[in-house]
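Q: Given only this backbone (710 positions), what sequence would you predict?
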């Protein structure tokens, strides 16, 4: 029996215990995203920061910080919004110091995935980045010499409940179990710290644990705080076009992986429109597909989908609520294969369920203890059924356990069968992140619905090694949807860094899902990107001839999607790959790609871009999808927004103004128009942005420009 953990009710006392228990350098591992115990990490950080004799190395990923404005206007606008949305969420001190380039010399931060774009131009963060696949994180944390692991956990009960207290790793069972196993197998010392945050949703199944897996459990109420909850992003017209293309490649009865943000929301909304508004959905696709809709999927999700994704996001929750994510998978290979083949029609238990398991050799006759355990675990026999020798009993009913005896089989199937298979999982995730209503839904979800969500290990989700046959049976018709920044004309993807070596975000699990898409016989990889990107240097194509850094090599190319279409690249020669990518490139950049491809001998000299691809332009796309935006099928915020109408109005104006400041000609035009029109913004807007009492020349100009953008 594992020793009971030490319960400490004050964070400062827990820090004392950690510093006393680990006398040398502390190498602290903490989960990515919301699984970080921020108050404990801050207390430990401050203590070591104040004591140069001690050293601390933090190993983690995705360290989240409340939004801060990059200008006075943005700062004024964000302040009340952040207070309302993030409430008492405590920022991490090491993140603040890392952004300010003021990390003390006795503290290091090493991340394997960074918030997108946050650390460009930051030497300490760039030098501390660890490039690794998500499935290697547990291994690489050990390589770094980690000797303390700390995690925010959910709890039921209290330490004094006579051993009845339970903990849940909640959002982040992703790497913790593997770390604990690795350290135990090697006999390496590791101080394991759980910090209870009562706001963390209590997730059952693979995330639920006994307190005894930890050495120290911190129960201080000061460790409970609001979870980091990014609000829903606006879904633009290009995002919707990408989502519509992607959704039309999803097979009913299949498996789905999507990500966070506007593209994830666009895919989820498109799947809901496909399921509920089939005729309109088909017309949208016919409008968007110049080559026709052959090979696209239409119709309702009669069997439903199984969600299997390292990140469980709000889009998945909306698909669960829409009844689309509902295909259940089971942790038994034979049972899963019987469902896949149609030998079992659905999850309803009937005499044929038992007969199919007999025919497959999964249960024997007469039934033994292991057979009974299996049948009860999956709800095929009722939990009250007992086995005494070769006799089954259910209340006053008794019969032989010999399934080949017609009378016994009839008795068992008429009196002892359960109503429905149990233990089915329709959503498997490694960690979650979403807006506040997403967390509240998890906290209040009925137990029978929550039981179908399994937060579990990344080494289960992101690869096929280990239980490979079962995973292959569960992940039928998988569609792994990933985003990237750029794609080369030969099919390589640039997702994590620039050609300077500067890291934008990280590899994360992208390569893992790419590899699985090629390893599973009926799976596909959908690599999604917007056709163009805009920065201070102007507008650029996101499909480029070549780039000095790639994340996914071209030999793993599959399906690439932009707002202008889906290019199926699997098994195609280079010339065809280039032509298919040109077909989904913004038309303003097609000629340059053709020129470069011909110059390198990769396209025939007589190749000409077909006319049907020459209208790949933003305005044409807006015109194509406007009718359905106006009907409400493609709303800007399909899953709601926490911003008020006034805040949305201000945001739109600020985005236009920010864009103009990066493009001098546009800024000059905007300034002239603002001076000519002499508009004034509503007083409440000016007050919100700190412009109500503007007197200086710069503030007066900004005030006029802002009003012009309204």
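A: Predicted residues:
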């Amino acid at each position: 029996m594992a020793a009971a953990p030490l319960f400490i009710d004050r964070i400062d006392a827990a820090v004392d215990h950690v510093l006393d228990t680990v006398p040398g350098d502390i190498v602290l591992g903490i989960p990515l995203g919301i699984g970080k115990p921020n108050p404990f990490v801050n207390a430990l950080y401050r203590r070591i920061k104040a004591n140069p004799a001690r050293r601390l190395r933090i190993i983690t990923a995705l360290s989240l910080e409340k939004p801060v404005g990059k200008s006075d206007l943005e700062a004024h606008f964000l302040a009340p919004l952040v207070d309302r949305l993030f409430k008492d969420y405590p920022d991490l001190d090491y993140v603040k110091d890392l952004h300010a380039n003021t990390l003390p010399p006795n503290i290091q931060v090493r991340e394997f995935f960074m918030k997108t774009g946050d650390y460009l131009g930051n030497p300490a963060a760039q030098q501390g980045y660890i490039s690794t696949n998500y499935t290697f994180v547990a291994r690489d944390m050990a390589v770094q010499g980690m000797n303390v692991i700390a995690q925010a956990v959910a709890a039921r009960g209290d330490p004094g409940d006579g051993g009845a207290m339970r903990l849940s790793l909640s959002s982040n069972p992703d790497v913790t179990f593997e770390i604990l196993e690795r350290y135990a197998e090697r006999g390496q010392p590791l101080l394991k710290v759980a910090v209870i945050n009562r706001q963390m949703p209590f997730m059952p199944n693979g995330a639920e644990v006994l307190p005894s897996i930890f050495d120290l459990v911190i129960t201080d109420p000061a460790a409970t705080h609001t979870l980091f909850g990014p609000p829903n992003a606006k879904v633009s017209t290009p995002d919707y076009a990408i989502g519509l293309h992607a959704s039309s490649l999803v097979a009913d009865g299949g498996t789905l992986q999507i990500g966070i943000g506007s593209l994830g929301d666009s895919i989820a909304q498109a799947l809901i429109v496909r399921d509920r508004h089939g005729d309109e959905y088909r017309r949208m696709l016919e409008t968007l597909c110049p080559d026709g809709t052959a090979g696209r999927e239409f119709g309702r999700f009669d069997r439903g989908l199984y969600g299997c994704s390292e990140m469980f996001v709000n889009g998945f929750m909306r698909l669960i609520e829409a009844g689309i994510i509902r295909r259940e998978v089971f942790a038994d290979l034979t049972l899963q294969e019987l469902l896949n083949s149609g030998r079992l029609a659905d999850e309803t238990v009937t005499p044929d369920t038992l007969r199919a398991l007999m025919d497959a050799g999964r249960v024997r006759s007469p039934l033994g203890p292991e057979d009974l355990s299996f049948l009860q675990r999956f709800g095929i026999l009722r939990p009250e059924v007992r086995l005494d020798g070769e006799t089954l009993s259910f209340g006053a009913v008794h019969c032989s356990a010999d399934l080949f005896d017609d009378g016994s089989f009839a008795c068992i199937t008429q009196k002892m069968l359960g109503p429905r298979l149990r233990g089915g999982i329709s959503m498997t995730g490694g960690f979650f992140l979403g807006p506040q209503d997403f967390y509240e839904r998890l906290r209040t979800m009925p137990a029978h619905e929550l039981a179908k969500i399994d937060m579990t290990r990344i080494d289960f989700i992101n690869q096929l090694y280990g239980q490979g046959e079962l995973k292959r049976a569960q992940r039928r018709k998988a569609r792994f949807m990933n985003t990237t920044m750029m794609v080369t004309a030969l099919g390589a993807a640039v997702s994590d860094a620039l050609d300077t070596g500067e890291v934008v975000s990280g590899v994360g699990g992208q390569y893992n899902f790419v590899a699985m898409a090629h390893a599973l016989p009926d799976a596909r990889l959908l690599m999604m990107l917007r056709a163009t990107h805009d920065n201070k240097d102007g507008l650029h194509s996101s499909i480029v001839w070549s780039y000095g850094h790639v994340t996914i090599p071209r030999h793993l190319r599959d399906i690439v999607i932009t707002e202008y279409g889906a290019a199926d690249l699997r098994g195609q020669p280079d010339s065809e790959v280039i032509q298919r990518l040109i077909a989904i490139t913004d038309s303003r950049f097609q000629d340059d790609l053709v020129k470069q491809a011909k110059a390198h001998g990769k396209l025939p000299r007589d190749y000409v871009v077909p006319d049907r691809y020459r209208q790949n332009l933003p305005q044409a796309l807006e015109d194509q999808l406007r009718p359905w935006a106006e009907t409400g099928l493609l709303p800007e915020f399909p899953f709601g927004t926490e911003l008020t109408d006034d805040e949305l109005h201000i945001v739109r104006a600020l985005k236009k103004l920010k864009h103009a400041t990066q493009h001098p000609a546009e800024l000059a035009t905007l300034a002239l128009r603002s001076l000519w029109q002499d508009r004034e913004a509503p007083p409440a807007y000016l007050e919100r942005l700190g412009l109500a009492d503007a007197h200086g020349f710069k503030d007066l100009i900004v005030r006029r420009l802002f009003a012009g953008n309204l």
